[in-house]
Design a protein that fits this description.
There is one protein chain. With 127 residues, the chain is an alpha+beta fold. It has a single domain, classed as VSR Endonuclease (Endonuclease, Chain A). A 4-stranded mixed beta sheet has the order 1-2-3-4, with helices on both faces. The longest helix has 16 residues. The radius of gyration is 15 Å and the shape is globular.
Length: 127
């Protein structure tokens, strides 16, 4: 069962949207204030777009398909279950990531600051 979930997560990573790819480039490798994010992270029987375990934070990106009534209901139920496991969920539109990435990153930073878990890195000294 775990192997199937791992394979499914790999498929989801290979099929990521342009917005997911863009956000991933901004947060991968602890690039966002030293926070470690994972892609297609499993919580319960769902896969989240991005998750930061230290913050217990899920970041979901929504495209136009999420505007449909059935998908909005599914998203709501899914979010409630993820939150029931102790996670906070932040949702952004794909368009926000593509046109205003800095605003999305600032919102994630603000959440991290409120959670009190961001440890600033010392400035890099250039030689």
């Amino acid at each position: 069962m775990t192997r199937d979930r791992t394979e499914f997560a790999r498929v989801l990573r290979r099929r990521q949207t342009l917005a997911e790819r863009t956000l991933w480039q901004a947060v991968r490798g602890k690039r966002l204030d030293g926070l470690k994010f994972r892609r297609q992270y499993g919580i319960s029987h769902y896969f989240t777009d991005f998750a930061c375990e230290s913050l217990m934070l899920v970041v979901e990106l929504d495209g136009a398909v999420h505007d449909e009534d059935d998908n909005q209901l599914n998203d709501h139920v899914r979010q409630q279950e993820i939150e029931a496991h102790g996670w906070a969920v932040m949702r952004f539109r794909n368009e926000e990531v593509m046109t205003s990435l800095h605003t999305v990153l600032d919102a994630i930073r603000a959440h991290a600051k409120l959670a009190g878990t961001v440890t600033p890195h010392p400035p890099v000294q250039l030689r």
